[in-house]
Amino acid sequence: MMRLQTGGVWLVAVATLALGACGDDGTTVDPRAELEEHVCEHFDGGDTEAVTAGAEAAAAVDVTGTHTRYDITLVDVGGALGGYVSIAIDEASEYAIFVSADVGVEVTDATGAVVTPEESFVGSDVCAPIGASTHVALGVGTYTIALGPTAESTVQLVYVEPGHDHEGEE
User: Fold this and answer.
1) Residue 72 lies in a domain
2) Which terminus of the chain is less hemmed in, N or C, by CB atoms within 10 Å?
């Protein structure tokens, strides 16, 4: 797996979790692998919703809902396939956006400013359906996610809050 970009906040959070996270048998638990295993469950089953991406940011389709797999049909954007979706965040936190292919993922805030990823990865050692992931710190508000350009006609997207407690979820 290749690390594309790292930022201080995400790296510190992962390092802190890695130092303190031990399995039942005393072995160290890789928090990223654990997160990817959880996300893989959403790629393989659970809640799904099919949407068609907007052709421009102003037409972004709302995909608010963590732990849901969105099957996104991409559209023509400047001669390539891509599109726009949006998410409404009601709790400031770190979020991880996973897509099923190595497509460009750019997150912008309500003013159109690009949110710099804390960390981005291509692929996963523990979950074949994960093509790439982007980890961003988001405040409360609405964000637009630009996907592409790509040759893919569809992409699956799941986003989660990595520090979220999943106890009691099915």
Assistant:
1) yes
2) C
For residue 143, what are its two tokens?
A: 């964000």
Residue 58 structural domain:
2-160
Total number of domains in the chain? 1
- Alpha-carbon torsion (52, 53, 56, 62), positive or negative: positive
Residue 89: inside a domain, yes or no?
Answer: yes
The reported pTM is 0.78
- Residue 24's alpha-carbon distances to 9, 27, 110, 149, in angstroms, are 27, 7, 43, 43
Residue 166 falls within a domain, yes or no?
no
CB 122 within 8 Å of CB 132: yes
User: For 87-134, how does the pLDDT look when each residue is reduced to its tens digit (9 = 90+)?
Assistant: 999 999 999 998 999 999 999 999 999 999 999 899 888 888 888 899
Q: Supply 140's token pair.
A: 């409360």
